[in-house]
Amino acid sequence: MYALPSNLQHVAIIMDGNGRWAQQRQLPRLEGHRQGSLVAEKIVKYAAQRDIPYITLYAFSTENWSRSAEEIRGIFALLGFFIDTKIKSLAQYNIKVQVCGAINKLSVDLQKKLEQVVQKTQHNTGTVVNLAINYGGKQDIQQACLALQQQGVVWEHENDIEPFLFTKNIPAVDILLRTGGHYRLSNFLLWQSAYAELFFLSVLWPDFTQKHLDAVIMEFQQRVRNYGGVST
Ligand code: IPE
Ligand code: IPE
Ligand code: MG
C-alpha cells in the first residue's frame, strides 16, 4: 500500500451517476441510489483504513428538492437506513461522523438519527466522515454571513468567517472528486474548494471502487500546488 501524501487532509466527493447507472439497466433510479449507498459504505471504510483525515460525501444538494417526491423520499429513506445499519457498525473503524447542510429541513426522524450518530461517534479519533445533506455552497456562505451579523461579530479576515461555515473544524478541500462525467461543482463546498485539486471521472458512482480513489490520490501526489506562487 502506498503512503498517503502528507498534504492530503480532506477528500470531498460528488457522488454522481446513480440515476444513469440504473437507467442503463432498465432499473428504477432508486436502485442506483441503493447501489450507490453500498459504494459509499465501502469508500468510507477504505478512507478509514487509509487514515484519510476528512472525507465529505455529497448526499443531497439544496437543488435536489426539484426531483420527484418519490425519488426524494427514496433517497432519504436510504440515508436513514445507511445511518442506522451501516454507519453505526462502522464504529470499529473509529470514524467520527459530522453533518453539514440545512438539517433542520429534514424529517424529525432523520434529524434524530443524524444527531445520534454524531453524538455517538464524537469522541472517535479516526477519519471524520462529513455527510453533506441538504447542502448548498451558496447557502453555506449566506447562513455564515447571517450568523456573523446576528452575533454582532466584527469580521475583517476570511479566517473570521470560516468558523461560521457548516464545515467549521474541517480543513479546506484538497481533493474534489466528481464521478459521473459532468464537469461542474453543482453548488458543492464553493468556499472550501478555493484551492482544491479537481478530478472529474467518467465512472458512474455505483461503479466507483477504491482503485479509482487510489488512482486519484496518486495523481494528486504528482500535482504541484502553487497557491498563487511560482513553483520551484
Ligand atoms: C447523484 O446521482 C446522487 C444524488 C443526487 C442524490 P444522480 O441521481 O444525480 O444520478 P444521475 O446524474 O441522474 O445519473
Ligand atoms: C450533485 O449531483 C448532487 C449530489 C451528488 C448530491 P446532481 O446530479 O444533483 O448535479 P446536477 O444537477 O447534474 O448539476
Ligand atoms: Mg446527477
What do you see in this structure?
With 232 residues, the chain is an alpha/beta fold. The chain is built from 7 helices and 6 strands; from the N terminus they run βααβαβαβααββα. The chain has helices at 18-24, 29-49, 69-87, 108-121, 137-150, 158-161, 210-222; strands at 10-14, 54-61, 96-100, 128-135, 175-178, 197-200. The protein has a 6-stranded parallel β-sheet with strand order 3-4-2-1-5-6, sandwiched between helices. Helix 4 links the parallel strand 3 (96-100) and strand 4. Helix 1 (18-24) crosses helix 2 (29-49) and helix 3 (69-87) packs parallel to helix 4 (108-121). The mean pLDDT is 95. Magnesium ion binds at residues 16, 180.
What is the SS-derived class? alpha/beta
Low-confidence spans: pLDDT under 50, at least 5 residues? none
Shape descriptor reads globular
Instruction: Output the radius of gyration.
Output: 18 Å
Count of runs of 4 or more consecutive helical residues: 7
Total beta strand runs: 6
- Bound ligands, named by name, code or SMILES: 3-methylbut-3-enyl trihydrogen diphosphate, magnesium ion
> How would you classify the quaternary structure?
single chain
Distance between the termini: 29 Å
Mean pLDDT, all residues = 95
Task: Characterize the biggest β-sheet.
Answer: 6 strands, parallel
> How much beta, percentage-wise?
5-15%
Biggest sheet, spatial arrangement of strands: 3-4-2-1-5-6
